Amino acid sequence: MPVRSYIEAVTLALHEEMQRDDKIFILGEDVGVRGGVFRATTGLYEKFGEARVIDTPLTESAIAGVGIGAAMYGMRPVAEMQFADFILPAVNQIVSEAAKIRYRSNNDWTVPITIRAPYGGGVHGALYHSQSIEAIFASQPGLKIVMPSTPYDVKGLLKAAIRSDDPVLFFEHKRAYRLIKGEVPDEDYTVPIGKAEVKREGEDVTVMTYGLAVHFALQAAEKLAEEGISAHILDLRTVYPLDKEAIIEAAAKTGKVLLVTEDNKEGGIIGEVAAIIAEHCFFDLDAPIQRLAGPDIPAMPYAPPLEKFFMINPEKVEHAMRELAEF
Amino acid sequence: MTEENILMPKLGESVTEGTISRWLVSVGDTVKKYDPIAEVTTDKVNSEVPTSYAGQITALIADEGDTLEVGAVICTIEVEGSEQADGDAPKPVVAEKQQVPNNTQSANQSMKKRYSPAVLRLAQENDIDLEHVEGTGKGGRITRKDMQKLIAEGAQSPQVKAAVPEPTGPQAQSAAPSEPAFAMPSSQGDVEVPITGVRRAIATNMLKSVQEAPHAWTMVEVDVTDLVSFRNKIKGDFKAKEGFNLTFLPFFIKATVEALREFPRMNSMWAGDKIIEKKDINISIAVATDEALYVPVIKHADELSIKGIGRSVNHLAQKVRSNQLSTDDMQGGTFTVNNTGSFGSVLSQPIINHPQAAILSVESIVKRPVIMEGGMIAARDIVNLCLSLDHRILDGLIAGRFLARVKEKLEHMSAKTTSIY
Predict the structure, then answer these.
(1) Contacts across the A-B interface (CB distance below 8 Å)
(2) Can you give the residue ranges of the Peripheral subunit-binding (PSBD) domain (chain B) (predicted)?
(3) Cβ-count burial of B191 within 10 angstroms (0-12 exposed, 13-18 middle, 19+ buried)?
(4) For residue B171, is pLDDT > 50?
(5) Model confidence over B27-36: pLDDT tens digits?
């Protein structure tokens, strides 16, 4: 099976889907001639032409709004926000329109749009190129938020997102783009949205996380295994709506739960995960639910020591896991 | 010049902390290696802490009276030359550092009784008494895995679930009296007496006192000849006037109460990390019935006359016999006087009425030949006063002085010196 990088899996999924269905088109800033600032859409303009790979003005509200309108007319747009940090001007379109059309029209209208955006820090991107913004959308029924961790999941989930009849926010960790490599089959396959996956089986502590932090947890688990601490790792994959069943099962497995995100600690996805566990797993819990997250400060700093302080890394995850295992 | 830390040493197995009782050095003092720098008290020993370095004391981190964990920094010292630090000097300190985590792991049982929901559920479902489970978690906490392991082992050998290890150490104490049954064979003709609530309460309290408080015991002989003749002279009139008997007990309580005021440490309680000297002097008195023993309380006994004490004793005894004691009558005691003499006993070793500091038993007053001053032998009225004390709170010195004071007061009780009103 060919080994591909995280970003190659994005390009591959887009390529295969556009070949499969000519209603699918891409729009965003520099996605066409330039092939995207991260090269996620590289080669697609040449292959599918300017009508299906559209360079837009620097107007996120328009990218989302045009995409939503086209989706309602039966197209399958894949909109790209150059950085997730810049999605905020489009929030009104996404939350007030895309998320609510199906409900508002009593199922007459749907918005089958996929909005891709690179998020996350650790790349010296400073304030406006490092943020995690998933929590902003995680209280909006009608939306789905997908945040894959592996190239395999990227391809399968992006295809599932494009084929979904409802709006999907597809957040890709920009540091994972070329850092994370994995086997990605050439065959057509999808990974179901809304399903978490156990990435490692273990007995002592359960770690639940998503995106790049999954790899930090896996690395930490590898080290801790040498000390005889066995970790159970659940990759949430879809952070909204959450896979409650999988969360409950993974929490009950060890009774000691560590939740990890690189987003700010307060008000994030993992707070909701903690609530689900508290509601359903009280009699299985053997330790207080622990959260490892970014500090509650406005954004990722630029200064390298401060960025390091803000970012989650394998050492921090390992430390938190060991603490919990020893509790 | 490097600055080194001097740590609280480990002064014995299972010792986890020590109290700086006295500093032997001040900031700026120059010390030689192995010079004593502080006196440290632990629950096992008192000892002097030597310095592992030669140099000048730069800071005393702990104050006198501070209790610190083993391995905590107590002071810093500026060491002359770095070769000292590389030499043999730091070795003991390094060794101590390595011991610390192990020691706190095994000795720290602070989390032993913090049960997680998972552990409680497994204990309930599998009928496991958590008192007897060894915890491998932090601070001795019983983890869910400990329970799962225990249950898995129990499934292999059926008796594990029921097998209750022998109660060891203080943790086991509260479990012992409520243990369902001992396999004690009874043969034909034996009478099995069911345990009443009162009996069980007595059993629990006695066991708790004996297991928790290290008892020490001491006794004095008191010559109460003058007191006896004083009391015998007035008892007839007293009965006629007041309507109840004037016994010796109120005199003994009076003398005790007065001495307690002079020795407040006798009127105190052990509270784990401190001793509480009680403001009120409330005397518990032991009143026996055929089935049980009650210890009702004379509140504010120091504010009562001998007659007042006599009336309270009489009143409480009647209440006990007519089964009318209220909970309030039983509460608030700070010291116990036990009238064992009423059974004819001349010597007893009472168990402290938990959580009080001590208990005094007044034995029978008996005629004894006594060699008086000047060598004459006389028939005197002698009584033994026996004192059990909680050795955590009290040492022999205070107890001895207290008893001597009680003795002195009693020996000077006579018609001339004492008013019963």
Answers:
(1) 33
(2) 114-151
(3) exposed
(4) no
(5) 888 888 888 8
